[in-house]
Structures are given as structure tokens and as C-alpha cells.
Amino acid sequence: NMTKIQIALDGPAGAGKSTIAKQLAAHLDYVYIDTGAMYRAVTLAALEQGIDLEDGQQLGELMTSLDIRLTPGENGQRVFIGEREVTESIRSSEVTNNVSFVAKHAQVRSALVEMQRRLAESGGIVMDGRDIGTVVLPDAELKVFMTATVEERAGRRHRENVARGMESDLEALQAEIALRDKRDSEREVSPLKQAEDAIYLDTTDLTIDQVVLRLTELAEGVLK
Ligand code: CDP
Ligand code: CDP
């Protein structure tokens, strides 16, 4: 079957979206698009330019000049602002702790949603984020809402940090994740929420391989 579908993957921080999306896309020979990285790139630029993150109008002006580029790389998606690579710098804790303030503004969201829809137009994509199934791609052939308990999600991030030899504080991570989830779920514009036609998947007790297998089966079910 040559049909190339759109797969929308939403859920809170640390649910495993990007890990699973990357592997699923590789399996299907699809393109993986990490929309969180786009909100992170806007946040990095806003912080660098000293923009007040509560000022939606100024952020809207930033959007008109900001040249965000996504390209596929060896280890997933690479992110550029113009010619400058920001793949690593958008993962800083300063960006992480500020991104949900930037992401609540309609002026920011409308510009990014437009870009995301363009990227998904031809199908053959796995897109992850918070509002993909509800707002960005309401007609996606497969929608999954992936979650896990906040303890498990913080634990995953903690183990990831420790494995990388980074300093990590489990309790602080859990508080940061809970706070970001709360902001993402309670904002007025496109909050984090399960689409009515999304499949709910609790990954608390599942390994990465188990989740990838489950999603591959779901995708193959749609492609049949
Ligand atoms: O990977 P992690 O779970 O830390 O987050 P992310 O996917 O990189 O997203 C970072 C932030 O961007 C989220 O906490 C949201 O505030 C925002 N975001 C959003 O509002 N809508 C999306 N479609 C994707 C991300
Ligand atoms: O993209 P999102 O924030 O939803 O999560 P992620 O960055 O893909 O996953 C966070 C961490 O959890 C990574 O270190 C994954 O290896 C790990 N993980 C896991 O241990 N078990 C799963 N079922 C999924 C992810």
C-alpha cells in the first residue's frame, strides 16, 4: 500500500513521544516532525532578544521575521534559526522553563500551526506535540494520546540525565514537569488535551519497544 498517512502523537512531557515517534517514523520510512522544538526555537530567540514573554504582540512581530528550519539528521530532527543550528541550545533548562509561557500566545501558535500543516501536507509524517490531533491535523488518519504517571515521566528524564553524566534532581524534575503540564493544559489557546478520536495509551509500565510495536500495529491497521 503506497498511501502515506499522517500520524499525530500528543501527550505531556516525558511520555515518550519523541523517542517513539522517531522509531515509528524510521520503521515506516516517514518523516518525524517535533513541534515542541519549534516552540523551543521561538523561546530561545525571544529570550536572546529580551522580549517580554507576556507580550503576545511583540512575540507576533518576532514570528514574522523568525526563520525556523527543520531538517532530518542522523539522530532525528535538527533545528536551525536561519543558518545557525540550535538543535542543542533549545534543550537548555532556561528554554524548558520558559517555553510554556511563549506557547500560550495565539500569535505564536497560529504562525507555527501554519508551518506545521505545510510540513504535513504530503503525508508520510509522524508529528508529535500537544495539539496535533486536536488542532494542527484534525484529519490525521491515526491519533494517539500517550501518557504516563508524572512520577514515571520524571523518573525517565532523571535516568536519561544520569546516563548522560549530567546533574539531575528527581524531585525538581517532577515539579518542573508537573508545572509545565499544568500550564500547557490550562491555557486558553489549544491546550494539551486528548482528541475525541485519539487512542489513549498509558505507557507507565511499557518499555520503548513495546510502545513502538503497539504503534506500528496501529499504523498497519490503518494502512491495510
Ligand atoms: O520534550 P518535552 O516534553 O520536554 O517538550 P516539547 O515537546 O519539546 O515541548 C516543549 C513545550 O512546547 C511544551 O511544554 C509546550 O508548552 C509547547 N508545545 C506546544 O504548546 N504545542 C506543541 N504542539 C508542542 C509543544
Ligand atoms: O517526547 P517526550 O517528552 O514525550 O518524551 P521522550 O523525550 O521521548 O522520553 C523521555 C525519556 O523516557 C527518554 O529517556 C526515553 O528513553 C524514556 N522512555 C522510557 O523509558 N520508556 C518509554 N516507554 C518511553 C520513553
Task: Describe, in plain words, how this protein is organized in 3D.
The protein is 50% helix and 17% strand. The chain has 224 residues and is an alpha/beta fold. It has a five-stranded parallel sheet, sandwiched between helices. Strands 3-4-5 form a three-stranded antiparallel sheet. Helix 1 (17-28) packs across helix 9 and helix 2 packs across helix 4 (93-102). The N and C termini lie close together (7 Å). 41% of the residues are buried. The structure holds cytidine-5'-diphosphate (CDP) (2 copies). The site of one cytidine-5'-diphosphate has 16 residues, from helix 1, helix 7 and helix 9. Residues 11, 13-19, 156-157, 160, 203, 206-208, 211 line the site of one cytidine-5'-diphosphate. This is Cytidylate kinase.
Short description:
The protein is of the alpha/beta class and 224 residues long.
Per-chain topology:
Layout: E1 6-10, H1 17-28, E2 31-34, H2 35-48, H3 56-65, E3 68-73, E4 76-81, E5 84-85, H4 93-102, H5 106-120, E6 125-129, H6 132-136, E7 142-147, H7 150-163, H8 170-186, E8 199-202, H9 208-223
Parallel strand pairs: 1-6, 1-7, 2-6, 7-8
Antiparallel strand pairs: 3-4, 4-5
Helix pairs in contact: 1-9, 2-4, 2-5, 3-5, 7-8
The structure holds cytidine-5'-diphosphate (2 copies).
